[in-house]
Amino acid sequence: MKAREPQGDGNLAVALSESALYLGSALGASLGGFALALQMPVDTLSIVAGLVALSGMGVQAWLWKRPHARGMACPDS
User: Fold this and answer.
1) DSSP 75
2) Whole-angstrom distance, CA of residue 43 vs CA of residue 60
3) Within a 10 A sphere around the Cβ of 18, how many other Cβ atoms?
4) What is the pLDDT of residues 9-34, one digit of tens each?
5) Could you point out which of 8, 12, 56, 66 has its C-alpha 20 to 30 Å from the C-alpha of 42?
């Protein structure tokens, strides 16, 4: 982030990150409430939440390996 501060992108990046976080929380709560309204077992909610978390970890690991495989360094944050 410090490398982009002269261009003023730091505040924008934080704002977009927070917006994505709030959007994810709202979507998760909405889908969970919808699943409960359909009278799905509560156990399935925890299983689905775990699968979503594992898929997020998988995407993060995949994205982390991509720049390193091409020999590019990740910028300091």
Assistant:
1) P
2) 26
3) 10
4) 778 889 999 999 999 999 989 988 99
5) 56
Q: Contact at 8 Å (CB) between 74 and 63?
A: no
Cα–Cα distance measured from residue 39 to residue 50, given in angstroms and rounded to the nearest whole number:
19
Which phi and psi (to 5°) does residue 31 adopt? -70, -40
Residue 44 structure tokens: 């399935």
Give how far Cα 63 sits from Cα of 8, 40, 45, 57, 74, Å.
25, 34, 27, 10, 11
The SS3 assignment for 70 reads coil
Extract the tokens encoding 69: 């495989």
Q: What is the pLDDT of residues 32-73, one digit of tens each?
A: 899 889 998 988 888 988 998 999 999 999 988 876 555 555
Find out whether 45 and 39 touch, Cβ atoms under 8 Å. no
